[in-house]
Amino acid sequence: MQFAKRLAKIPPYLFAEIDRKRNELVAKGVDIINLAVGDPDKPTPIHILQVMHEAIDDVSTHNYPPYQGTKEFREAAVKWMERRFGVTGLNPNTEVVSSIGSKEAIHNTFLAFVEAGDYTLIPDPGYPVYRTATLFAGGESFTMPLKAENQYLPDLNVIPEEVARKAKLLWINYPNNPTGALATLEFFEELVAFCKQYNILLCHDNAYSEMAYDGYKPPSILQVPGAKDVAIEFHSLSKSYNMTGWRVGFVVGNAIGIKGLAQVKSNVDSGVFKAIQACAIAAYSTSEAELQSLISVYQHRRDIIVKGLQSLGWPIQPPKATLYLWAPVPPGYTSTEFVTLLLDKCGILVPPGNGYGAMGEGFFRIALTVSDERMYEAIQRLKDVGIRYAE
Ligand SMILES: *Cc1c(COP(=O)(O)O)cnc(C)c1O
After folding, report:
1. How far is the CA of 207 from the centre of ligand 1 (A)?
2. Are 200 and 294 members of one domain?
3. pLDDT grade, residue 327 (50/70/90)?
4. CA nearest 106: which of 151, 169, 62, 50?
5. Is residue 91 part of a domain?
6. Alpha carbon of 187 to those of 105, 159, 172, 184, 379: distances in Å?
């Protein structure tokens, strides 16, 4: 049997060698501190679980859901966009579609809009799905470098005219995975203008909109006047409400973008379990106080790891959002060399920055998904073996 050629196009799994090492160490009984996964370690809040207990006993949830999502869920999504971002006038029938988590919807958006000869504009470093979905769709990706000196925002001036003309989709993600960077509404305005000029569907992956600290509230791209002419935004319950396993989110914005995505989806999947959509509605009615108590857990861990690394000479500042800390490797190391050293000497597992694109070389990512105690322990292990940023 032979795999389809499209599978061979997918780049080799960058973490394969590190995974092999990790498994070797685990087999030897080494206590690994896993700072690699962007998967919340706390349970889903109880008020959401209570809705599930009831919804599962309601037999009307047991059959196929409407493809686009239940009317109640789409209306709740529209209300939440209004309440949270002040975005009004969204039509729940034509401008919203439910998703089985964002990953699925991101991938299927490429299938709806990209074909051979088309370009996609994607960030580097960035969430790997943008690249692999371009390959699945048979398109060509142009990577927009995210550089520290530009606050990890893409510089639209480096996109060649002929690439912009052939581009169908432009992807951004702020608050950003993996860099933790933020975008302003002014920057979103620039993007909207650029995408209008070249007739590109602007796709904003807003998976971390609620995971922000120090009082910061990330914006929606749909807050930009006229954004709906070109933009769609991807929202997910996964990270904010500790619901990664539930697989639910929604996409909102430009009606053509939503229609294309919904058409692919209606041929690929059959929607989100209605009981889960009921839970998502409950999640969006979480009180501000409860949401803050979920988020403050990460803020506390962030402070521990940032202070610890700063005490070891790391030139880093606390990120204002996301589950991640993006840190430079000490001078003289490649990303892969340094994460291998951390694993071998300290039993600490982190992904190398180049796993998110070539521009990630020279960095590693720390996920805030282990307890305070394990955060302290990780810093202590670095101290014990004398790993510092620089002498
Ligand atoms: C986690 C993540 C997603 C996907 O989350 P789902 O669980 O599929 O909703 C999408 N984009 C980014 C940048 C992420 O980090």
Report:
1. 6
2. no
3. very high
4. 169
5. yes
6. 24, 16, 11, 5, 36
Atom nearest to 127 CA in ligand 1: 13
**Do residues 145 and 189 share a domain?**
yes
Task: Please enumerate, by residue number, every residue annotated as part of a binding site for substrate.
Answer: 13, 38, 127, 177, 365
- The total domain count for the chain is 2
Task: Give the nearest ligand 1 atom to 238 CA.
Answer: 7
Chain segment 38-91, per-residue pLDDT in tens: 899 999 999 999 999 999 999 999 999 999 999 999 999 999 999 999 999 999
- 272 and 350 share a domain? no
Q: Which residues are annotated as a binding site?
A: 13, 38, 67, 127, 177, 208, 236-238, 247, 365
Which residues span the domain enclosing 279?
46-283
Domain boundary among 283, 302, 332: 283
Q: Does residue 159 belong to any structural domain of this protein? A: yes
139, 120 Cβ separation under 8 angstroms: yes
Question: Looking at the structure, do residues 34 and 180 belong to the same domain, yes or no?
Answer: no
Residue 390 lies in a domain: no
Convert the pLDDT of each residue in 335-383 to its tens digit: 999 999 999 999 999 999 999 999 999 999 999 999 999 999 999 999 9
Q: Give the mean pLDDT of the chain.
A: 96
